[in-house]
Amino acid sequence: MGGTHIAAIAKRTDAHLGAVCTLNGKALQGDFRDSGGNLNRPGVLFDFSAVKKYADWRELVGDSDLDAVDICLPTDMHATVSMEALKAGKHVLCEKPMALTYDECVRMMSAAEQSGKILMIGQVLRFWPEYMALLSFVEGAEYGAVRQATFTRRCGLPDWSKWLPDEKRSGGALMDLLVHDVDQALRLFGMPAKVAAKRIGADDAVMATLIYPGGPEVRIQGGWFAAETPFSMSFQVRAERAALEMTPEGLMLSDRTGQRRKLELDGTDGYEGEVNYFVDCCTGGKQPELCMPKESAAAVKVALAMKESRAKDGEQVACLG
Fold first, then answer.
1. Average pLDDT of each block of 10 consecutive residues along the chain (321 residues)?
2. HSE (CB half, 13 Å, CA atoms) of 291?
3. Beta bridge partners of 122
4. What's the rounded Cα separation, in Å, for the pair 185 and 125?
5. Rg of the chain's alpha carbons, rounded to an integer?
6. Beta-strand runs (E) in 185-269
7. What is the dihedral of CA 83, 84, 86, 88, to 10 degrees?
8. Domain(s) of CATH 3.40.50.720: residues in the chain
9. C-alpha separations of 20 from 30, 54, 274 in Å
């Protein structure tokens, strides 16, 4: 993810990469050719000859030449590094999930408020063309109220990572992977009253229901499966007069007559959209209204409730209050 963000920063003319920090010797020299992750994006070789290089994040955070810090570290480091960067007067873009606990999220928000700097969490689906179209579909009055929504996301166990399979560091699939879909559900429908979740399969996966009294039926399912499982994500949202589906063939709209057509999207890369928005907020001195940290904290709260419910074999767990 660090390489993905660097590639997006490199396209800006009003911002540049001033320093990098990693314990990975190859990456510190700009070699990200072996960094594919679950999306299997092509690796990149960067020119870091004019970039400061650190092996200790504390030195990077303390660098007075830097205005902002982009944190693509293991989740158990998010809160500590974010708060220290904010304390040092830096704007912060931090990868999702925001932190491992809701209390850490609260402390991160408090640090941002005290510093007067921008804190934004990398909920990249908010900048993904298909999910931006979904927001318009739900918020628009053309098709009526949403009745049902299902979000699915799955991939193989992350054997390409040393820290992701360690639940104490990553929070597991519900926190690291499905937090994307939790964030989308909350963005579209608000905080559910309760959640109920059950384990599916032998690995770290779940089928969960977000309970909205009098509201839509919302389900989130998926997680980490066998190592050879390819990455996939999709959604199906049904309103009173139409349905919108993200499929391998594209974004499909079906109306009440049964007619089905593919919607054309602008093709903007979600990661570039996310990084560009963060840079624009920093240069413009405005808070990230399209991706506020309190909303990312709420997603952590619901993901933790899903984990608790799964551990209790589907017992409903409250989210409000």
1. 93 95 93 73 85 97 98 98 98 98 98 98 98 96 94 93 94 97 98 97 93 95 93 97 96 92 91 97 97 98 98 96 74
2. 30
3. 95
4. 11
5. 20
6. 194-199, 205-211, 217-225, 232-239, 242-247, 250-255, 260-262
7. 160
8. 2-125+273-289
9. 9, 6, 19
Domain at 2-125+273-289, CATH from 3.40.50.720, 3.40.50.10860, 3.30.200.20, 3.60.21.70: 3.40.50.720
Beta bridge partners of 224: 155
**What pLDDT is recorded for position 41?**
67
Please tell me the distance from the alpha carbon of residue 245 to that of residue 239, in angstroms, as a whole number. Answer: 11
- Chain region(s) in the chain for CATH 3.30.360.10: 126-266+299-318
Alpha-helical segments (H) within 140-237: 167-170, 172-176, 179-189
Q: Is the pTM value of this prediction over 0.90?
A: yes
Spell out the CATH class of 126-266+299-318.
alpha beta
pLDDT at 242: 97
CA dihedral sign of residues 38, 21, 45, 273:
positive
Please give the pLDDT value at position 160: 82
pLDDT at 183: 98
